[in-house]
Known about the structure:
Layout: E1 17-21, H1 26-37, E2 42-47, H2 50-61, E3 67-72, H3 78-92, E4 99-102, H4 117-142, E5 152-157, H5 170-190, E6 195-202, H6 209-213, H7 220-228, H8 239-250, E7 261-264, H9 281-294, H10 298-301
Parallel strand pairs: 1-2, 1-4, 2-3, 4-5, 5-6, 6-7
Helix pairs in contact: 1-8, 3-4, 4-5
Amino acid sequence: MSHPSSPFQSNCLSPKTALITGGGSGICFEISKQLLLHGCSSITICGRRSSFLQKACSSLNQLGRGRCSYFVMDVRDPQQCQSAVEYAVAQGGSKTLDILVNGAAGNFLATAEGLSPKGFRTVMEIDTVGTFQMCHFAHPYMVRPKTSSTTTTILNISATLQYGATWFQSHASAAKAANDSLTRSLALEWGQDNIRVCGIAPGPIADTPGTTKLAPGLTTEDLQDVVGEGIPLQRMGEAWEIGMAAVFLCGKGGGYVTGDVLVVDGGQWLYKPPMMEREMVQEFSRKVEKQSRDQVPASVRSKL
């Protein structure tokens, strides 16, 4: 699928080193791609499936921009988190880390009564505990002197499930709500270390495993039609658009943004169906206005 030209300079992230968990597929693969295309000299993608990461890494290296390496790990294991950070730093060659993207996540459809404690715990451990552990071990490599004019960036990939409530997503909603709180807390504490901590909350993104998993049996065209009806912009998002949000937040343009979660969902979380067709609004409004002016208070009506 073709996309518009990037609004950002191709070297705006040069020569940063980045580590992306979950970077082998879906949204985070596109983020990895855009970090390279915009100047990162070294990125490391992480995940649990070696063959999957190897293929993704090979594809990213074919871009001819910077260098991609991969590290097989599970974010639930603190020792593996520490090893992944150290590996990414070594690959960058500067003994520092500039960008950490926490994209590893677990999710599936489940009713609250049918969700086992183990299933709930697993999602919390991947999404929330894993995010904290990666941040914890990355912190020493991301601190910059107070006199420095540059900052480092942590991006926590969130969601909008938890903004109200979402059917059959009690586990993921709880995990993402905790992550948003963690984003704010770390931004508050680590600002003095010149570390910015932000989030991105994607809406439904076409052709990604996350969207497919939550809409079983629907084709891409069906998804566009069904999901698009509940989005003010009337379409699903594209992974490229999440990549652009990541480039903005990791670059100088986002240099004064921290502790915030950027929602990129076409307005989906705001959506509610209209009370009537828009062509009827003006006429209906006039009628209702006249009725309200003529309406007698109930206490007065009872005496008439």
